[in-house]
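hi! just following up on the protien thing from before. the input was this:
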Amino acid sequence: MIHKFITVLIVVLSGTIYAQNSLEGTLSETGTNAPLFGVDVYFPQLEKGAMSDEKGMFRITNLPTGSYKIIASYIGFKTYSTTVNIAKGSNTLTISLAPSAIEMEEVIVSTPFHKLQRENVMKVERADIADLRSKGAVTLADGITNVPGVETVSTGIGIGKPVIRGLSANRVLVYTQGVRLENQQFGDEHGLGVSDAGIESVEVIKGPSSLLYGSDALGGVLYLNPEKFALEGQTESDVNLNYFSNTDGLGANAGIKASGDRMRYLIRGSIASHADYQTGKNNEQTSQKVTNSRFREYDLKTGIGYQGTNIKTELRYNYNNLLLGLPEEIGEQTTERTPVSPYQQINNHILSSKTSLFFEKSSVDATLGYTFNTRKEFEENEGGAALDMNLSTLSYNILYHLPKWANWETILGIQGMHQNNRNFGEETLIPDATTNDFGILGTSHLHFSNNSDLQLGVRFDHRAIDSQMMGTLNEEGYMAALNQNFNSFNAAIGYKWEFLQKLTGRLNLASGFRAPNLAELRSNGVHEGTNRYEIGNANLTNEKNIQADLALEYKNRHLEWYVNGFYNGVSDYIFLDPNGETIDNSPVFLYQQQNAKLYGGEIGVHIHPHPLDWLHLESSFETVTGKLEDGDFLPLIPANSLTNTLRTEFLHGSDKIRSSYAFLTLKSIFDQNKTSAFETSTEGYNLLSIGLGAQLSLFDQEVNLRLSGNNLLNEYYIAHLSRLKSDGIANIGRNINIGLSVPL
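and the predicted 3d structure came back as:
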């Protein structure tokens, strides 16, 4: 057996060394046949591409034989997508791009078949981080609230965690660098913990994704795509600066990346520092700084890769250090930047390895990840950390892309993780424990000749949790040992069809599951960040759900609209419920289970009228309702909202001003009276934002400048998903952002 393996390895490496397959071709505009300069031509699966020259010509070398999807994208033109067959030696391709006012499409990475959005069976929202920055987002968690159907549970401005269609915490799985991010996300005040520096885009799967990712993806997935390596033979570097007026916030990041014939590397470092934020004001309330909402962040991302003909591999590392104040009241008005007690000190280490082997008709993707999270929480008048937890997670994901059969694409895979939680602090909220996951999956995509597609899949998962005894029997804080196993079988089916080449429908039906986490099973102590005494329930079972999604989209050159609706039935939904008692002056909350349902959706329209293709009018509405079986509403359900935007985009083509944009947005959030038994309702409010930016050439140096203002009217408001709501503390007031990006 070992001899056969060595033989196969030698054959693969021999192909890597000697094969010189290439693709070259030309790019031109449909109708005029004029050559197009600066078009990105890219193989998503191979992560390899080139840019067209002044004559519209491109060349990509060191390609494996086989059939691969290729994408050609350029501002002002419809994104081109086709599958090309790479034979041994030289290959040619002629591409013609049609003008379009619709924004460029990108390949969706979070789903396994590397499709453009219009080709995808599953509806996935995607946003470029650069676009979120242009809207004045202070943090990544703040920025993702611009994605339809996504909100955030916030503790001030430094701490935020995603909410997808009313579900959050361990029901939303976060992926970064291709691996799952594990950072004790069970806590309401445990934020995202990822810097937007070195992140290229974010994708959001809204709905159960257990088929693709296993437990904890019951509510959806937030998939963060890291910065790409430079194209072959190129070196790029840049410096980015940010200033935020409200918090006197300063941010800077710089990076460099280069790629040779086979080797490539990148490195980016960033720093952010914010003082306390200031609220808005109205006739009754004055503007005040929210004491201890300050925070500081350091971040380093680096990577190295090798790309041959039949193999590509990369190793990435991310270190993130956060110092986060936990605001509790409006106290001393100061411009200090160092948090005072209570505060959190968090370190995240993420090491990931991704390798792909390409055979003539099939391929294998192997992703390994190791994350190490340290979380320390410091209380008032305490010397050491009251809470000190280390969480280490080793994960793996191996996918085999079978040879295509007719129009069938099929993937088989295994996934899993090994996780350890350890306590070192003066207090213990959850016990020392080991968690092991294993899952096996199969999924297929079938493309019909009538422009319709079918996707289906099945999966089996097993989770084992083994926790140690903590504390002393019959005393406060005692946690008995636990050894439990959870199993689940899930399936998904989706169908996409096109009418008249302009109207697209998507219908998806999927099941999902989530095994109870350590906090829900065995917590027994004061959770300082939430001011609760939480008691776990060892009798909890899997949460299980079935969600139906229906999406309709219409697109032509000057009009787009969409309607997305969903119904999500959750069996044995886990939630916290107060029992009316107190321990150590903190209210006692118990973990309970009950069937629940969530339903709602998003509606939007985008108008870019001819001949004013530079003008864009956008409007969207989103709503979600969550109820328990007994009729009570679920907690932390976002309020309904309506967003209207007027946007302009210009391609100037002059020597001084290359391009520019401007926008005006009014976001209206409605009253939220559908609250759980221990929540308070919130009143509606309106937030006005503006922004403008330009790509300039100053002294032969390209410069990207942006200016934005959020909550321009300095509205005094309290968001329903703000954890400071119970203390009557308002959200951030007027905030002006100035950003500067300089490619070097």
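The two ends are 52 Å apart (CA to CA).
Residues 1-19 have pLDDT under 50 and may be disordered.
cheers
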